[in-house]
Amino acid sequence: MAEFKPKIVVFACNWCTYAALDLAGTSRMKYPANFRVIKVMCSGRVDPQFVLEAFKQGADGVIVAGCHPGDCHYVNGNMKTLRRMTMLKKMLEEMGIEKERFRLEWISAAEATKWVQVANEMVEQVKALGPLKPRLEVKE
Amino acid sequence: MSEEIRIGVYVCHCGLNIAGVVNVKEVVEYAKTLPNVVVAKDYVFMCSAPGQAMIKEDIKEHKLNRVVVAACSPAMHEPTFRGVLGDAGLNPYLFEMANIREHCSWVHPDDKEAATEKAKELVRMAVAKARLLEPLEKIKSAVRPAVLVIGGGVAGLRATLDLVERGFDVYLVEKRSVLGGNAVKLGELAYTTLTGKDVVNSLVEKIKANPKAHIFLNSEVEKVDGSIGDFRVTVTRRLGEGKEEKIELNVGAIIVAIGYDPYEPAIGEYGYKTTDKVVTLFQLMDILSEEGPTKGELLIGGIRPKSLAFILCVGSLSTTPNAKPYCSRMCCSASLKTILKIKEKYPDIDVYVFYKDMRTYGKEEDLYWKAIENEVKFIRFDEAPSVKPRDKFVEVEAFDTTIQERIAIPVDAVVLANGMVPATDTEKIRIMLKIGCGADGFLKEAHLKLRPVEALTDGIFLAGVATGPKNIIESIASGSAAAAKAATIVTKEEIEVEPLIARVNEDMCSGCGICAALCPYEAITIEVKEDGKRISKVNSMLCKGCGTCAAACPSGAMQQSGFKDNQVMAQVVATFRGE
Amino acid sequence: MSEKPKIALYWCASCGGCEEAVLDLAEKVLDLVNAVDIVFWPVAVDFKIEDVEKLPDKSITASLINGGIRLTEHEKVVKLLRQKSQYVIAYGACSAWGGIPGLANLYKREELLSRAYFEVPTVVNEEKVLPRTYKDEELGIEVEVPEVLPRLLPLDRVIEVDYYVPGCPPTPDVTWNAIQALLSGNLPPKGSVIGASSKALCDECPLNETKPDKLLIKEFKRITEFTPDPEKCLLAQGLPCLGPVTRGGCGALCIKANMPCTGCFGMLDNVSDYGAKALSFLASILDVEDEKEVERQVKEKIADLVGRLYRYTLPSSKLGGKVFKR
């Protein structure tokens, strides 16, 4: 069997996490190539529908990431993210999606190392769980 | 959509930065297979003049109506390429970038195959979004050539003076009955023979002489409506005998210079308020002032002390449970400067300085060496010293980390070098102006390094200690900086704001009001139509384009331009498959 | 007679409420019967599958199908109706999105069969017999028993659906609007919802105007905890009313009975996953900043999160139901 290469979708806010990933680049840090980043201006833009769509399309994991609480570029957008994603975590759990597949992370523009750590950890955890997509197709 | 979508994809080598890892040619060939892509090219530096020219020519030749550039981070060159589209007569917002440098080649140098695969997918995602992009126009609005300055401390005064000298009307609103803020208490300043009061007076005189300056003392800002270029402000002025008047102002920009409060130690914190022999640095400076209660005579608790202990970092650097984690920036220098002045007047006094970290940064290092020359004794601590009031003296006990021994020094009086905390009004102002504050409680800059005197809300600027501890030089400099930034707005007749904002589809909106409750800028209101139906309205000058309303809108009626549901969804889908 | 449009009605996995809903048209049912020929309606008229098979393709003007697809038999019949009909209408919540029986998608088929045939207290089944096709020795024939599908599916996952009529069940007004649209031929683009509103329930809710300027709540409440003020928006009173995320058209029936909307008219055109969107707006207005407090309220005040937010739409959701380990 071919090696399982999980694909993980990252919804990153423009001001903190997206910039942290840029910093990881300019600092020539290395992390696995499993992530596909979708930029939004604020993590508060992330509609839970986007997360579910990602899983539906075949994401093995999803990360929603923004500025630290109290540090939102838009006053408190991340607090709405916190509430939505906390509730979404619970819903995903009830829907049978392992909690390791969905993470809410606060990563500031300076925390490239935190991003690399989260990235490595996530790939490892998701690899251990195996692919999700085949399990979505309920057949005989 | 009647118009045929014609996308051009441009893959940058960035020298070897991208091409050294990603197989650029392969990405170009892949891009050509994507639906609606009519041309795909690579070039060594897409941002260079020839690169830009190539895109411009292609837009005309291939009748492109969408452009995707796969290169560095959009933080780097998105504005550049939007400009290219504009120059070629295409709407600048019909542009999307795939970040294949910072997010790809630079971080996956060891796996060229995976990096190339990822680059292809990032291009596919960008193309999927580009296909759904819509032309957007910047939003324009008229500007009022006047500025409101909140707070009449040194930062606010400097900002006011700079702006009135440039010919703008400035409304300076000060809560207290006098101008000058905390600076008037500072006594003689380092490197000068000037006192804080002298500095304040020189600013105030010039301001009062200028007819463009409108000073409101005993006044507070009650309400702020509107947005950049056109703020409507209500000020309440106390007239005495419980009377007050309301003043309505209309300004194009606002400078917030609300300063700080000195940290007030808790009762018993370093013996504070358990004996009259423990005073704060601010109280000491008042004692030493010619206009103070003792006419400048050094008397603490009724006696002229023969020995003094200064404890630094009171309220700062987390020295006690109540203390703030940050450094208050002025207390080390202010303490040493005061000590030197005392030593000059009373050479017989023994002075001990208990410090955690001596931060006489920059030129002020000189104060530290002068203090050593004047036989001031420095004792370094990690754990906060304890202060024990005895009958005739006060005992300061600490573990001296230099000699690695616990020592106890009896002194006649103790001075607590108290730091700075956010002014009491900070929270009220923050909410009123809808600007952010950090975990430390100070107002938050739009960007600490790149935009240090701008608030997160357009048209609002921050000066002085309102954003965090500063010394007097830094406060005055930031006052000037804020004035210069405010001037860039009020000199214009019209301003433009980014169109990546929320817009509501009235045919779908039920007026449920979820969006209005969430907007951090109060840009959304619910309007009642003639038929009694409720509809959400977005004030496009107030909206900052965070999109939190769109994420919540239960009807999908609220959409954020540039980040519409279908645009983001298209990216999600394209992460996994081509169409 | 032969000029009249032909109509078929069929039920799949449904409670029968949608059948009643047609009769709820009251005297208008007579107008309906006068205006059309009913060619198939197992619950009311004695036509057989064979009668439908004999009809030429596309000869039925419209088939109104209610209920979700749970059995192989449902699959077979709806495919036949698709072949014979010009329009196929998913009638009612179950057909459109799976409906309440669709909540069974939180369980594996084996769990469902075991529960229904072995575990329910009123069932005595010592020999553990499950429905299956068998040979009747006496009659010498094969008795075909339809099989249970692994998951309940909304109608449009099995056949192409032209229009949707929402509701659990659709109200008489909505049903009549939809029938009139069909008979007049004045129809919106294929795939649209017909008969109901294009806006959320709040638009027609009499309590919409009572909402506060800032619709934020500190705590969700359960309907069992208090009697809500009938003059005030239920959501503003802390009840997780799903009106904002639910298509209007019912006339706010539940609200008028002082009960929060549970979402039976489903999502609006710009929403692709009802439960996710419901979650998003509810979480947004819950004005607390502590993660643990959000978790507590979900647990204690919303309780059955999936059951509540996907009550009528689970099979049509992005995940379609619970994702099981292999």
Short précis:
The complex is a heterotrimer of chains A (140), B (579) and C (326). Chain B is α/β, with parallel strands linked by helices and 579 residues long.
Shape descriptor of chain C reads globular
Name given to the CATH homologous superfamily of the largest domain in chain C: NADH:ubiquinone oxidoreductase-like, 20kDa subunit
Helix content of chain B: 25-40%
The first-level CATH class name of the largest domain in chain B:
Alpha Beta
Widest sheet: strand ordering of chain B: 8-7-6-12-23
Q: Sketch the topology of chain C as an H/E string, one letter per element.
A: EHHEHEEHEHHEEEEHHHHH
Q: Got a strand count of chain B?
A: 28
| CATH fold naming of the largest domain in chain B | FAD/NAD(P)-binding domain
Secondary-structure class of chain B: alpha/beta
Which ranges of chain B are low-confidence, i.e. pLDDT below 50, for 5 or more consecutive residues?
none
Largest sheet composition of chain B: 5 strands, parallel
**Individual helix count of chain C:** 11
Largest interface chains and counts: A-B, 43 and 53 residues
Global outline of chain B: globular
Mean pLDDT of chain C: 95
- Output the radius of gyration of chain B: 30 Å
- SS elements, strand count of chain C: 9
The residue ranges of chain C in which pLDDT falls below 50 over 5 or more consecutive positions are none
- What is the oligomer described by this structure? heterotrimer
Average pLDDT figure of chain B: 95
Architecture overview:
Chain A has a single domain (8-129), classed as Rossmann fold (3-Layer(aba) Sandwich), CATH 3.40.50.960. Helix content of chain A is 43%, strand content 16%. Chain A is built from 5 helices and 4 strands; from the N terminus they run E-H-E-H-E-H-E-H-H. Chain A has helices at 17-26, 48-57, 77-94, 112-129, 133-136; strands at residues 8-13, 35-40, 61-66, 102-106. Chain B is of the alpha/beta class and 579 residues long. Chain B folds into 4 domains: 7-136, Rossmann fold (3-Layer(aba) Sandwich); 146-259 and 423-494, 3-Layer(bba) Sandwich (FAD/NAD(P)-binding domain); 262-421, FAD/NAD(P)-binding domain (3-Layer(bba) Sandwich); 499-561, Alpha-Beta Plaits (2-Layer Sandwich), CATH 3.30.70. In chain B, helix 6 (154-165) links the parallel strand 6 (146-150) and strand 7 (169-173). The two termini of chain B are 18 Å apart. The mean pLDDT of chain B is 95. Chain C folds into 3 domains: 6-100 and 150-184, NADH:ubiquinone oxidoreductase-like, 20kDa subunit (Rossmann fold, 3-Layer(aba) Sandwich); 108-149, no CATH class; 201-316, no CATH class. In chain C, a hairpin with a 4-residue loop joins strand 6 and strand 7 (141-143). Chains A and B meet through helix 1, strand 2, helix 2 and helix 3 of A and helix 4, helix 5, helix 14 and helix 15 of B.
